[in-house]
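Researcher: Quick test of sequence recovery. Tokens follow.
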């Protein structure tokens, strides 16, 4: 049941990202896509937090190392947004690390600098 809910939620996020990309196209700043995607998701009833702080627990203490998750949707899915030429392994490692540190099980890595948005989306689950 939990996996089904995550698939439904990630499907809504992907659909919204495709809408944003169809209207704006590639070539804009990541922050522009973030704000537009947040607008569509909130309009659709999904709770969204942008630029959520992600402290690191080290030897029993919380350390604010300046990490921020681009989007946290319904406290269930981390969305990491990019507007880059190519998704690199470091981008994937970044999202996987955010998932591990936060305890969130599902993440989406979305690169808006593509011709077709579907080609710029990767789903990760732990």
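Model:
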């Amino acid at each position: 049941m939990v996996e089904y809910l995550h698939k439904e939620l990630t499907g809504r996020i992907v659909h919204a990202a495709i809408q944003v990309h169809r209207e704006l196209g590639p070539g804009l700043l990541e922050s522009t896509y973030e704000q537009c995607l947040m607008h569509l998701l909130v309009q659709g009833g999904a709770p969204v937090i942008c630029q959520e702080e992600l402290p690191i627990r080290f030897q029993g203490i919380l350390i604010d190392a300046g990490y921020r998750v681009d989007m946290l949707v319904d406290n269930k899915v981390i969305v990491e947004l990019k507007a880059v030429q190519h998704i690199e392994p470091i981008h994937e490692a970044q999202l996987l690390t955010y998932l591990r540190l936060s305890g969130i099980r599902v993440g989406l890595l979305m690169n808006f600098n593509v011709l077709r948005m579907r080609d710029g989306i990767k789903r990760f689950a732990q």
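The first helix runs from residue 2 to 24.
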